[in-house]
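Take a protein:
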Amino acid sequence: MPDNLPKKNDATIGYFTVVNDERTGWTGGLLVLDRAGRPLEFQCTLPVRPTRAHEILFGPTLRSHLVAQVIGKLLLAKCRTPLSLICCDLPEGLKVESFTKSPVTLVLEAASDDRNPISADSIAGSETVTIAGATFVVAMERHAELEAIADFYNDLPDAVEPFERIREAVKEAHSQLSRQNSEAA
């Protein structure tokens, strides 16, 4: 376990997700909260639209590439607030761990739905920690680190809801872009 764990009062939690809209493309959002769930920073990308050549060349790995290598990497680079923990709701989001020193987790309740159930067993080499009533899946080698800071987030009102805030903010950003484009035309 690293010696550079955050102090409880400085603990932050970053929520990262990507929204795919057929009309606009892939848009990512990163919402940074304090340990009580209040926003400290929000970043979102412009929509990314892969070309047909990208679809052909990347094949079934395109989604993972867009989520982690393109969008996630950019959002983490733009973030000005030090992150203690990063949460995602897409399994592909776990791959952003190579761009940060913070543990990256999958919030199981946010990642699963009736059409696409995900279990901790389906994420190879992972373990779980319960935070604010939700199951956080983390790489086995980061489990002790996450356990050490899990209590910092006991005041978090809801570990799943921030993903919805991001989706709503991205939707609002898309509508603002549409208005700007129609006014310019």
User: Anything to note?
Assistant: The chain has a mean pLDDT of 91.
